[in-house]
C-alpha cells in the first residue's frame, strides 16, 4: 500500500505543483508578483477542501459499512479508480508538452482583465482536482481506510519527492525532461490500475457476483504466497515453508496485483488490460504521425507544382 500511495501522491502532487509553479513563475516574469498570493490562496483553499472531501468520503464509506454494503462500494471504487488512473496517464502524456503554454495563456487573460477571482478559482480547481483524485485512489488501494494511507510514509514521501522535483525543475537544475518522468511513473501507475482491476474481479467472485470457469489457473503458494496468512497455512498443511515470505507477496499484490491462485477471469482481465492500453498507445501514436505528416506532404505537393 505504501508504494502505491507514494506513486499516486507523487504523480498528483507533482502535477499540481508544476501548474502552480508555472503560474507563479510566469507572474514574476511579467512583473505581476502582486497576484502570486492569490494563486497560493487558491491552492491552500483546495488543500483544505481536499481534506474535507477525504473526511466526507470516509463518512460515506462508514455508512455503507454499517449497512453491510461496503464490499460493493469497494468494488465500484476499484473499477472507477482503474479507469481514472488510466485516463490520468494518457492525459498527462498528451498535455505535458503544451501545459506551460496553456497555463500562461490563461494567466494572460486574467491579468489583462484584472480578474483576481479567476486566478484564485483556477489554482483552486487545479489543486482540488488532484486532491480529489488522490482521495479516491487512496480509498481504492486501502479498501476504504483513507486515513491509513494519509498517515503512512508513502503519502508523505510522495509529496516530498514531488516538491523536490518541482524545486529543481523551476531552478533549472533538473536535466531529465518531465516527459521522461511521466513516462516512467506512468508505467507504474498502469501496473497499479491493472492490479486494482484484478482485485475488483476477485472480490466479485468471492461474493458470488460473478462466477468462474476456472477458479484456479495455477497455484504459486509454494513459491510466493500473497499474504502472511497464506504462508502460515502452507507451512501448516505441507510441513515446509514457501521459498518467499508472505510480506513479499503483499508487496507484489499491492504494486502489481499479484495473485498466487488467480482465476481464469483474473488472468484474462490482467492481460487484456495491458493489450487495451497498448492498442490505445499505438493508435494515438499513429494519429500524431498522421497529423505531422499531412503538412509535410502538402508542402511537397506544393513544391512539385511550383517546379512544374
Automatic annotation (TrEMBL):
Keywords: Membrane, Transmembrane, Transmembrane helix. InterPro entries: FTR1/Fip1/EfeU. One of its GO terms (cellular component) is high-affinity iron permease complex. One of its GO terms (molecular function) is ferrous iron transmembrane transporter activity. It is a multi-pass membrane protein. It is found in: Membrane. The chain crosses the membrane at residues 6-27, 39-66, 72-90, 110-128, 148-169, 181-201, 267-283. Pfam families: FTR1. Belongs to the oxidase-dependent Fe transporter (OFeT) (TC 9.A.10.1) family. PANTHER family: IRON TRANSPORTER FTH1, PLASMA MEMBRANE IRON PERMEASE. This is Iron permease.
Amino acid at each position: 500500500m505504501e508504494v502505491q500511495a507514494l506513486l499516486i501522491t507523487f504523480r498528483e502532487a507533482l502535477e499540481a505543483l508544476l501548474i502552480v509553479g508555472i503560474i507563479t513563475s510566469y507572474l514574476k516574469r511579467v512583473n505581476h508578483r502582486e497576484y502570486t498570493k492569490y494563486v497560493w490562496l487558491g491552492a491552500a483553499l483546495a488543500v483544505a477542501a481536499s481534506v474535507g472531501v477525504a473526511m466526507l468520503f470516509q463518512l460515506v464509506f462508514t455508512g455503507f459499512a454499517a449497512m453491510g454494503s461496503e464490499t460493493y462500494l469497494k468494488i465500484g471504487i476499484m473499477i472507477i479508480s482503474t479507469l481514472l488512473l488510466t485516463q490520468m496517464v494518457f492525459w498527462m502524456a498528451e498535455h505535458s508538452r503544451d501545459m506551460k503554454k496553456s497555463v500562461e495563456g490563461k494567466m494572460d487573460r486574467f491579468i489583462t482583465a484584472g480578474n483576481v477571482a479567476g486566478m484564485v478559482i483556477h489554482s483552486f480547481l487545479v489543486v482540488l482536482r488532484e486532491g480529489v483524485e488522490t482521495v479516491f485512489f487512496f480509498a481504492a488501494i486501502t479498501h476504504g481506510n483513507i486515513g491509513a494511507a494519509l498517515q503512512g510514509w508513502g503519502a508523505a514521501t510522495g509529496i516530498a519527492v514531488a516538491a523536490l522535483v518541482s524545486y529543481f525543475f523551476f531552478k533549472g537544475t533538473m536535466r531529465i525532461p518531465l516527459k521522461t518522468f511521466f513516462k516512467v511513473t506512468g508505467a507504474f501507475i498502469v501496473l497499479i490500475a491493472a492490479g486494482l482491476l484484478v482485485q475488483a474481479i476477485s472480490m466479485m467472485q468471492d461474493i458470488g457476483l460473478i462466477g468462474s470457469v476456472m477458479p484456479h489457473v495455477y497455484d504459486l503458494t509454494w513459491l510466493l504466497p500473497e499474504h502472511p496468512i497464506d504462508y502460515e497455512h502452507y507451512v501448516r498443511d505441507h510441513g515446509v515453508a514457501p521459498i518467499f515470505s508472505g510480506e513479499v507477496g503483499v508487496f507484489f499484490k499491492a504494486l502489481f496485483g499479484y495473485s498466487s491462485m488467480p482465476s481464469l477471469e483474473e488472468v484474462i482481465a490482467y492481460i487484456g488490460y495491458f493489450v487495451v492500453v497498448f492498442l490505445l498507445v499505438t493508435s494515438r501514436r499513429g494519429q500524431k504521425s498522421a497529423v505531422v505528416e499531412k503538412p509535410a506532404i502538402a508542402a511537397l505537393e506544393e513544391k512539385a507544382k511550383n517546379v512544374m
